[in-house]
Amino acid sequence: MQFSSRMDRFGDEIFGALNEKKLELEAQGKKIYNFSIGTPDFETAPHIKQALIDAAKDQDSWKYSLRDTPELLGAVCSYYKKRFDVDLEPDMICSCYGSQEGIGHIGLVLCDEGDTVILPTPCYPVFIAGMKMAGAEPYYYPMVKENGFLPDVSSIPEEVAKKAKLMIVSLPSNPTGSVGTREVYDEIIAFAKKYDILIIHDNAYSDIIFDGAVGGSFLGIPGAMDIGVEFFSLSKSFNLTGARISFLIGRKDVVAAFRKLRSQIDFGMFLPLQKAAVAALTGPTDMVKEQCAKYQERRDALCGGLRRIGWDVPDSHGSMFVWAPIPASYTSSMQFCLDLIEKTGVICTPGISFGPLGEGYVRFALVLPPEKIAEAIEAVRTSGLV
After folding, report:
1. CATH number of the structural domain spanning residue 345
2. Are residues 27 and 123 in the same domain?
3. Which one of 40, 97, 294, 312 has the minimum C-beta count within 10 Å?
4. 62-100: b or e for each residue (b if 16 or more CB lie within 10 Å)?
5. Domain of residue 146, CATH code
6. pLDDT tens digits, 162-217
7. In a 3-state reduction of DSSP, which class is residue 267?
8. What is the mean pLDDT of the chain?
9. Do 190 and 265 sit in the same domain of this protein?
10. Does the residue 224 lie in any domain?
């Protein structure tokens, strides 16, 4: 079988490989501390579960939905107004099966072969994979320690900006944990307007920001709605990762084109999932704030604990991730991850998986409680790796 040359654009999927290693070591009886995949371990709220259960009892719910229901679109509009003070209309919203799927496909809507796109590095792998799937050519703007792991549009050459079609921004950042400022967003919007570039903002972690800061929506910044769209996810805020409920929100022409593509490959989100989403968006949100405080406790336990044993890991400012420089005795993040798994049972993700400037770091997901984090840190300490 001669497979499509398109598949040569992609490397191996790292999270699947790490999971295979985890299963292998568990079969050997080794204790594992899995910090690799960012899936919340907190309980999904009962009212969300019940909404899905009740809808699933209705036989009509098992038919093709064919569209986002008016109830769901209204719930998104209401939530954005209440949470972010952003006014939306229903035709500015289209659901997708998780932001990963949405970002993976949006390049097919916006790009032709050879188009230039501007991507962060390091970044979540689907930013790269989705654009490569569309045949676009990425230019990577650096997210580096010296600039607080924030975008600096002044570093993007004018010849790149003039031919670029879109730019992806992700703040709070996965994997670096950096949090955007109003000044950064204003600079990005001015840059996009000057060069007629569409901004795609990944807003998966607006409810996980630490040290008293409050997350918002990119679309709430003046001018953003003219040049941008945003992926908004229920996965992390409401512990719905497996349900895959996200939305593309913003400029009507972009949303309409995205909806047209989805109509060719999908028959609409399962109606019980839509009901669960409505329950999340219209129900109580106290648990969202409580979870943010718990994530901060985990960040403090992990970063502070690693610093105490001699590993200088800075505090994350947001997201459910910690971006840790590898020990000075290593030059390969992959080799360090493999040694860490073998000697300690601690699984994290090598930075090389997150693009050209990811090497030299590893990513930890804050998916274990503080007492388990303390155990993992002790295992690292006794291993002598740091």
Report:
1. 3.90.1150.10
2. no
3. 312
4. eeebebbbeebbbbbbebbeebbebebeeebbbbbbbbb
5. 3.40.640.10
6. 999 999 999 999 999 999 999 999 999 999 999 999 999 999 999 999 999 989 99
7. coil
8. 95
9. yes
10. yes
Residue with tokens 């501007």: 118
Q: For residue 51, give Cα distances in angstroms to 46, 76, 100, 271, 378.
A: 9, 16, 24, 11, 42
* Number of domains, the chain: 2
Rounded CA separation 177/268 (Å): 33
209 φ/ψ angles, rounded to the nearest 5 degrees = -135, 140
Q: pTM higher than 0.85 for the full model?
A: yes
> Could you tell me which of 117, 45, 87, 64 has the C-alpha nearest to residue 276?
45
The residue type of 288 is V
Q: Which amino acid is at 115?
A: D
Say if residue 150 is in the same domain as residue 265. yes
Helix runs in the chain, H state only? 14-27, 46-56, 70-84, 98-110, 125-133, 158-163, 182-195, 224-227, 235-238, 252-265, 271-282, 286-308, 333-344, 370-383
pLDDT in tens, 254-266: 999 999 999 999 9
Tokens in use for 99?
Answer: 């932001």
